[in-house]
Amino acid sequence: MKKIIVPVDFSEQSEIALKTAASIAKKYKSEIYVLHMLELSEALISVNEQVHYEQAVFMVKLAEKRFAEFLDKPYLKAINVTPIVKHHKVFSEVNAIVEKHNADLIVMGSHGTDGIKEIFVGSNAEKMVRNANVPVLVIKDEIPGFEVQRFIFACDFREENLEAFQRAKVLADKLDAEMILVYVNTPGDNFLSTTDAFKRINKFLHLAKVSLEVEIFNDYSVEQGIISFGEGRNADLIGMPTHGRKGLTHFLMGSIGEDVANHSKIPVITFKI
């Protein structure tokens, strides 16, 4: 993890994300790109309207001033930090910056049960997690000296999740973390017998060419199962796949991915399929 992007809105949650990125950067000698999105209207960024253009320039300069104050923190000393101010839509800008700088990770803060707010209001948060071409780490509470020793990865072990799992495995190896795999079995249409569950899991592990144990955890919902399992194993990080433009995977139907990130006290990282 040589390059990390941290989208910020200068809130407390932004600083929690920045501190987390700093902990990772110090351990792996990473660079941090701190990104603030103004999302100015087309009217304000139009050079055809001089007044509007001057207002846009003023807002950019104001953001740069806030950046200087926001980044003047002791925990950023000895870390190569680059501030970036953009005004386009969050998703296209972030993905473009990921590609331009060959970034490995996005770290973003969350307000917990209220969802990820400010520059990632409502569906913007879901789109960021869904469309980012690199893992997205969502963190709610400050964790001094953030370090991952136990990494839970939860999925339904369908073949479509193979790439996400492989990327998670690479991350776990980089972090030198114990990787713990879990399948959450729930009542209803998605219920699998133990035999059927292990048939699917064994086929998946064979395709992945890994020899790891998978725990089957029973609960009333996938969301609660992931959180309860993670807490029971004292996990430092919970990983899960997402399904690109089609939204969350079959395993993470509806808002389960966002719900886990919002309700879990444990940081959550997502991997795009």
TrEMBL record:
Pfam families, alphabetized: Usp
InterPro entries documented for this protein: Rossmann-like_a/b/a_fold, Universal_stress_UspA, UspA
UspA domain span: 1-140, 149-271
Highest taxon, organism lineage: Bacteria
Family: Belongs to the universal stress protein A family.
Cross-referenced SUPFAM superfamilies: Adenine nucleotide alpha hydrolases-like
CDD domains for the chain: USP-like
Stated name of the protein: Universal stress protein
